[in-house]
Amino acid sequence: MSSSSETAATQATWTPDRPIVSIHGVHKRFGDFEVLRGVTFDVMKGDVVCVIGPSGSGKSTLLRCINALVPIDEGSIQVAGQEVHDPKLDKLALRKKVGMVFQQYNLFPHKTALQNVMMAPIQVLKQDKAEVRERALKLMKKVRLNGKEDAYPGELSGGQQQRVAIARSLAMNPDVMLFDEVTAALDPETVKEVLVTIRDLAEEGMTCMLVTHEMGFAREIADMMYFTDNGVIVESGPPKEFFANPRDARTKEFLGQIL
Amino acid sequence: MRAAGERLYGTTDLPVLLPPGERLLRRASRERTDGVPRLTLKAWHGAVIAAVVLLAAAAAQAQGAAEARPGVLTALWKWVPLLVEGFLFNIAISFLGMGIGTALGTVLGVMQISLLPPVRAGSWIVTQFFRNAPWLVLLFFCMFLLPFEFRVMGFVVPFPDWVKATLGLSLPVMANVSEIVRGAVQSIPSGQWEAAESLAFSRRQTLVQIILPQCIKRMLPPWMNLYAILTMATVLASVVGVSEVMTLTQRVLSAESRPELLVPFYGFVLLLFFMYCYPIARFTHKLELRYVVKL
Amino acid sequence: MEDFFQWFRWLYDETGINLTILYDSFDRERMVRGFFNTIYLSLICLALSVVIGLVGAWLQGSPLKWTRRIVQGYIQLFRNTPPLVQMYFFFFALGSLMPRMENEYGIMEPVLSNWHWAIISLSFFAGAFNVEIFRSGIEAVPRSTVEAAESLGYTRLKTYIYVVLPLAFRVCLPALNNNLVNLVKTTTLAYAIAVPEMLYVANQIWSDSVNVPEMMTFLLLAYVVLVGLLVHVMNRWERAMRLPGYGV
């Protein structure tokens, strides 16, 4: 855990021995309702972190805060040394580092699968079109969707759309990937193909943060588990320990309900 | 989690027959955004109007045959070129009015979703103002309050009546287009904004590259419907004396001063409008069906 | 009150802003009458159009094919032609066919005045929309709801009064309100056949007093406020009537 004086020092120079995502004392309110009430934890490069918890406990909000989709009220979030809670935040630079995949895929329905993957690098990063195309084709292959490049999102199944969404985020070459309940809207039979894609990514050493209800999957791939309830982290630990003997009563209750 | 009903309408590619209540509510809410009722023309309406014209003309012909005046059909035939010319003027006004209204309305609509509260409030007020004002009153307003000529650097730019009428008609079009744009943008799921934002698109890029292209498909049917309504509203210009088809018809009728001409001539005007608006309504309907099915 | 009105005379003397409708009692009364004529025209056309709508919806449920076709023809004809041309058609074309009668001063005049024709044509115009609205509204009440009411011992009439119509009314309300707002705006067309509603009266006043800009601005504001108020009240009413989980 870094103190605030260190925080300032790390701003410019992030080194791999420091956490790539550092969350410190984060508070977030929506009106009178406090969704996050002092959340603190670190994620090291290459780690796979799973956040679980009952609905409404602030898991998704936490992910959105990391990406600056939702501004935080208090505390600090640093991504590769860049402070997110900063009015002068360079959102473009932050979002190049952080990729996000949503529950509802949110593909752009007026563009083909391949165009969805190519759009942001070309229009936002102003990269060379031919180069991007080559990379996008590789990514489509990586998510096992070669052959579906010219399909429109409406013509793809939920699982296929979600994999395009993953490829679309990867095209920005992010350092961290955020997955917000990415399998929650899928049919049971297509959940697996998406999970396999995420596991491939994790095995390649991509830093991943997942909010998920897939406990089996979390136990398999996570390096670290976090359980949130009522806007705070109640319990954390490596998955083996976390699932085998949870210490907190609320964790026990939750796992008891869900497993 | 999605509700069961939403899932049903959102994910199937089959045409879903909505229950009548929902259909009615959807139409009502759509008409509210469009600001105008929908046009539902059918081919047989044209046939009926044509029949009225012909029957009335034939009946009057038979009646007038006793008197030594040219027949009603002959009279109608004599004036057709003039009336068609007048109608073309209506079309020209509608094109121009739609162009101006769309350009201004799009800007106003985008301003309605601005992040700056004063811009948003201002454009909302302007939109509501011109949406709530009756078309005819706006037409009068432009007719009487715009000068008949402008002086620009010593040049006199004439500002004839029909230009003023066009401007007057384009004001409500502007307000309705503004609502159509706002409605379409707001109908795009917020996930699209979030996804674009998380891919580092700026707000402007998101709007231009991602949101507006998706809106066009949704805006096209109400926009075309609005155009047909505007075309029918061009006859209002006759009230303020622009020589469009209705004015010409009335002048012809008073010159001929034969009561038996009234029904065929007014019927002919209806027929002209029908022949123009019907294909538009057909096409709009087709587009709408495609959109409903492919949600 | 008189001081308030006189202030506008002073305003005219000082600035040239000539609001005769405020300081001149003749113009004021004319304008007030015009305003109430607009309201009266709207209300009476609303009432008639609702009656036409109900009758039409009832006729559309008729087992006779031709009855349904005629109603359908009426709806389509009135929905798809410019209301101004409809009004001209009624007033000039049909009006010319009407018999004339001697009035109390011994002058021959048509049985139906311009007022009558305006009311007829606007009511039929708005009524065409109402037929469809009522019909869809009644269809919207699920058969199962009717059966439930009947199984509880409601008679057919009572089912209609206590179950079908209240539900149908809620479904119809937004569409009906759209139609009413449109109707108020469409009453301006009565100007074209010299019915003394607001627009027509305003026109008379500005011809007499040569104060076109003032009258035009006043007229525009008056309509925007009138229609805006109407829309606002209707929206609140709709919100209050909305049933959770029923409709959009």
Automatic annotation (TrEMBL), chain A:
<protein>
    <submittedName>
        <fullName>Amino acid ABC transporter ATP-binding protein</fullName>
    </submittedName>
</protein>
<keyword id="KW-0029">Amino-acid transport</keyword>
<dbReference type="InterPro" id="IPR027417">
    <property type="entry name" value="P-loop_NTPase"/>
</dbReference>
<keyword id="KW-1003">Cell membrane</keyword>
<dbReference type="GO" id="GO:0016887">
    <property type="term" value="F:ATP hydrolysis activity"/>
</dbReference>
<dbReference type="Pfam" id="PF00005">
    <property type="entry name" value="ABC_tran"/>
</dbReference>
<keyword id="KW-0813">Transport</keyword>
<dbReference type="GO" id="GO:0005886">
    <property type="term" value="C:plasma membrane"/>
</dbReference>
<dbReference type="InterPro" id="IPR030679">
    <property type="entry name" value="ABC_ATPase_HisP-typ"/>
</dbReference>
<feature type="domain" description="ABC transporter">
    <location>
        <begin position="21"/>
        <end position="255"/>
    </location>
</feature>
<dbReference type="InterPro" id="IPR050086">
    <property type="entry name" value="MetN_ABC_transporter-like"/>
</dbReference>
<dbReference type="GO" id="GO:0015424">
    <property type="term" value="F:ABC-type amino acid transporter activity"/>
</dbReference>
<keyword id="KW-0547">Nucleotide-binding</keyword>
<keyword id="KW-0472">Membrane</keyword>
<dbReference type="InterPro" id="IPR003593">
    <property type="entry name" value="AAA+_ATPase"/>
</dbReference>
<dbReference type="GO" id="GO:0005524">
    <property type="term" value="F:ATP binding"/>
</dbReference>
<keyword id="KW-0067">ATP-binding</keyword>
<comment type="similarity">
    <text>Belongs to the ABC transporter superfamily.</text>
</comment>
<dbReference type="InterPro" id="IPR017871">
    <property type="entry name" value="ABC_transporter-like_CS"/>
</dbReference>
<dbReference type="InterPro" id="IPR003439">
    <property type="entry name" value="ABC_transporter-like_ATP-bd"/>
</dbReference>
From TrEMBL, chain B:
<dbReference type="InterPro" id="IPR043429">
    <property type="entry name" value="ArtM/GltK/GlnP/TcyL/YhdX-like"/>
</dbReference>
<keyword id="KW-1003">Cell membrane</keyword>
<keyword id="KW-0812">Transmembrane</keyword>
<dbReference type="Pfam" id="PF00528">
    <property type="entry name" value="BPD_transp_1"/>
</dbReference>
<feature type="transmembrane region" description="Helical">
    <location>
        <begin position="87"/>
        <end position="113"/>
    </location>
</feature>
<dbReference type="InterPro" id="IPR000515">
    <property type="entry name" value="MetI-like"/>
</dbReference>
<keyword id="KW-0813">Transport</keyword>
<protein>
    <submittedName>
        <fullName>Amino acid ABC transporter permease</fullName>
    </submittedName>
</protein>
<dbReference type="InterPro" id="IPR010065">
    <property type="entry name" value="AA_ABC_transptr_permease_3TM"/>
</dbReference>
<keyword id="KW-0029">Amino-acid transport</keyword>
<keyword id="KW-1133">Transmembrane helix</keyword>
<feature type="transmembrane region" description="Helical">
    <location>
        <begin position="133"/>
        <end position="150"/>
    </location>
</feature>
<keyword id="KW-0472">Membrane</keyword>
<feature type="transmembrane region" description="Helical">
    <location>
        <begin position="43"/>
        <end position="66"/>
    </location>
</feature>
<dbReference type="InterPro" id="IPR035906">
    <property type="entry name" value="MetI-like_sf"/>
</dbReference>
<comment type="similarity">
    <text>Belongs to the binding-protein-dependent transport system permease family. HisMQ subfamily.</text>
</comment>
<dbReference type="GO" id="GO:0043190">
    <property type="term" value="C:ATP-binding cassette (ABC) transporter complex"/>
</dbReference>
<feature type="transmembrane region" description="Helical">
    <location>
        <begin position="226"/>
        <end position="249"/>
    </location>
</feature>
<feature type="domain" description="ABC transmembrane type-1">
    <location>
        <begin position="87"/>
        <end position="281"/>
    </location>
</feature>
<dbReference type="GO" id="GO:0022857">
    <property type="term" value="F:transmembrane transporter activity"/>
</dbReference>
<dbReference type="GO" id="GO:0006865">
    <property type="term" value="P:amino acid transport"/>
</dbReference>
<feature type="transmembrane region" description="Helical">
    <location>
        <begin position="261"/>
        <end position="281"/>
    </location>
</feature>
